[in-house]
Design brief:
Blueprint: E1 5-9, H1 15-25, E2 30-34, H2 38-44, H3 59-66, E3 71-74, H4 77-83, E4 86-89, H5 109-121, E5 126-130, H6 138-149, E6 155-159, H7 169-174, E7 179-182, H8 188-202, E8 210-213, H9 215-246, H10 250-258, H11 279-292, H12 296-323, E9 332-336, H13 351-361, E10 365-369, H14 375-385, H15 390-396, E11 397-399, H16 403-407, E12 412-415, H17 427-432, E13 439-442, H18 449-455, E14 458-461
Parallel strand pairs: 1-2, 1-4, 2-3, 4-5, 5-6, 7-8, 9-10, 9-12, 10-11, 12-13, 13-14
The structure holds nicotinamide-adenine-dinucleotide and uridine-5'-diphosphate-glucuronic acid (UGA).
């Protein structure tokens, strides 16, 4: 089966970049990305390719090349579904905030709405591809909705989880370690559907990197991959606390263990805590699944990864308070970075949000500079926590466009995101303008301890015991 029209429901961090790359690599396929969020679609269709709704290095160039050629962004969901032979579902699957499984299970309401809409609209057979990260066995729920509410057309469900990381999305999509496709190999139509998706990826991914499995393995592999990655970060962060007590340096420990080929060197960077929209959400989802099968030990094991991460954020802010003589009330504390990692404008679950919230509860005056995050987003992140009124957040926290202004008259600077530009600042100048003693709390371990020390800073680096 040759696919000529693809529809992707959800024009977010995954849908946008993924479809842009498919459109670039498959000029013979028309790719339409649809969303109910009109302003998001308008932004994808905007004049300025540097201001797309998702900031990702290299993405603007690809959208510039493909948009209007075979890549389209639209709010007309029905039409795009109708035209497509293959429909990707790439909508958000956040943690439930209500009812059974609140705070743990994935909220599948957006997925279900998509399934119902696809069923209602489709007049021809469709391959429906789960691109969103989903609890294992969700495909059976989607299939049941499609088969029971559809117009007697055939639906094949595939699972094709996405492994891109933000900040490197384009690179990850162009050169994936693997592409995973789960499908029903036991039927002729299932095999054809799998083959149709394999063919699309084969336009730029080597065959041996395209892995096909059954649907449940594919769904579960995605949760497992995120759980393992997050577990490494929590493991090294746990060691960072021991390092601080014992005089060891976590970056030296990470290097020493990472050279063991069985362990490997990636994902061993100690930090103020992992953030991002998925690690916590996906682990909690895994914990919920384990609990729902009565596997309490398995659930507790994975939950500890999130507990450790919360602890890391809390102890970072506690350390700022205790170092600044046990009171930060009325003191200006500067945050360099708000995004959950460098090279993205995404702030979802960023450690900066909790650290700021803790300091604001101590009545600190937090000032923030981030090269890519807007002040609107920063206030929205804080207000969402509901710890204090929006007015109080506005009073206590200020957002700056200039990092030097953000640091002026500050008592302490906290590095929350590892943006490269922070390394090249004129730290001597920053020091001159600060209250003394001037502290730096490096939650990402990116600055040079000796250099900052020689300028006069009192420098604290996460995971360093000296
Ligand atoms: P996102 O919130 O950025 O985008 C989701 C989009 O779906 C939103 O724009 C929303 O308006 C739209 N949407 C929701 N319901 C809709 C409907 N019924 N019809 C049309 N549009 C609808 O989310 P995201 O970060 O792109 O994540 C999407 C999925 O991919 C999630 O399951 C996530 O776990 C997974 N994932 C995310 C990443 C990542 O780096 N962000 C990586 C891998 C996997
Ligand atoms: C992560 C996974 O890496 C992707 O494979 C996956 O597709 C994605 O989640 C998802 O499902 O959403 P992402 O969250 O975009 O990608 O970014 P990561 O590079 O994994 O970083 C996550 C968090 O861990 C960041 O806050 C980062 O700063 C932190 N981190 C990462 C560390 O603290 N130390 C490390 O060594 C690595």
């Amino acid at each position: 089966m040759k696919v000529k029209n693809i529809c992707c429901i959800g024009a977010g961090y995954v849908g946008g970049p993924t479809m842009a790359v498919i459109a670039e690599k498959c000029p013979h396929i028309k790719v339409t990305v649809v969303d109910i969020n009109e302003s998001r679609i308008a932004a994808w269709n905007g004049e300025n390719f540097d201001e797309l709704p998702v900031f990702e290095p290299g993405l603007g160039d690809i959208v510039k090349k493909t948009r209007g050629r075979n890549l389209f962004f639209s709010t007309n969901v029905d039409q795009a579904i109708n035209e497509a032979e293959m429909i990707f579902i790439s909508v958000n699957t956040p943690t439930k905030t209500y009812g059974k499984g609140k705070g743990m299970a994935a909220d599948l309401k957006y997925i279900e709405l998509c399934a119902r809409q696809i069923a209602r609209v489709s007049k021809t057979d469709k391959i429906v591809v789960e691109k969103s990260t989903l609890p294992v066995r969700t495909a059976s729920a989607i299939k049941s909705i499609l088969d029971n509410t559809g117009n007697n057309v055939q639906f094949e469900i595939l699972s094709n989880p996405e492994f891109l990381a933000e900040g490197t999305a384009v690179e990850d999509l162009l050169f994936p370690d693997r592409v995973l496709i789960g499908g029903d190999n036991s039927t002729d139509s299932g095999q054809k559907a799998i083959q149709a998706l394999v063919e699309i990826y084969s336009n730029w991914v080597a065959k041996e990197r395209i892995l096909t499995t059954n649907v449940w393995s594919s769904e579960l592999s995605k949760l497992t991959a995120n759980a393992f990655l997050a577990q490494r970060v929590s493991s090294i962060n746990a060691m960072s606390e021991i390092c601080e007590k014992t005089g060891a340096d976590v970056s030296e420990v990470a290097k020493a263990i990472g050279m063991d080929s069985r362990i490997g060197s990636k994902f061993l960077k100690a930090s103020v805590g992992f953030g991002g929209s998925c690690f916590q959400k996906d682990i909690l989802n895994l914990v919920y699944i384990a609990k729902s099968y009565g596997l309490d030990q398995v659930a507790d094991y994975w939950e500890q990864v999130v507990i450790m991460n919360d602890h890391q954020k809390q102890r970072f802010s506690d350390n700022i308070v205790s170092t600044l003589y046990n009171t930060v009330s009325g003191k200006k504390i500067t945050f360099l970075g708000w995004a959950f990692k460098k090279d993205t404008n995404d702030t979802r679950e960023s450690a900066a949000i909790n650290v700021a919230d803790n300091l604001l509860s101590e009545r600190a005056n937090v000032s923030v500079y981030d090269p890519k995050v807007s002040s609107k987003q920063i206030y929205a992140d804080l207000d969402y926590l509901g710890t204090r009124s929006n007015e109080e957040n506005k009073d206590l926290l200020s957002v700056y466009k200039d990092p030097y202004e953000a640091c002026k008259d500050s008592h302490g600077i906290a590095i929350l995101t590892e943006w490269d530009e922070f390394k090249n600042y004129d730290w001597k100048n920053i020091y001159k303008q600060m209250n003394k003693p001037a502290f730096v709390f490096d939650g990402r371990g990116i600055l040079d301890k000796d250099e900052l020390g020689s300028i006069g800073f009192i420098y604290y680096k996460i995971g360093s015991g000296d």
